[in-house]
Amino acid sequence: MTSSSTPGLARFNTLADDEATTALHEVCAGEAWGREILSRRPYATAEALLSASDAATAALTTEELAEAMAGHPPIGRPKPGDPTSSREQRGMAGATEELKAEMLELNLAYQERFGHVFLICATGATGEQMRDAVKSRIGNSPEQERGIVRTELGKINRIRLTRLVTEGE
To answer: Is the bond preceding residue 42 a cis peptide, omega within 30 degrees?
Structure first.
């Protein structure tokens, strides 16, 4: 994405607050994140919007981070009728039944250990890469994992915001 303003960014900047809130909720389920992004409108450039997203993601409390993560389905089980989660988890679509079953077991073990869904920026990742990531991260401390989850959420938010302000161009 270039640093200049785009028609999509101009459209986002001029949406009514309720429409912008709805659009932002599709990017990230965290209400505090959405309020922060909304409060800084208008954005001069797409990069300014992405920088604001990075700052808002970094500022989330543990509870706000949990709320943001709650909007993400488990890897291998995208939300029915949700093209975003299906597109992002495309790497699992062609996975073998064995890999899908292994991911289900790993997801459950991860959720039991950390109390939340395994979150990874799945865009462009294969099923095997996602499986390897959950295997490597399940041994982390809760503090380590919260830091990784925050980074992964930031990547996802950037991809989704970029799509929001460039769709239809």
So the answer is: yes
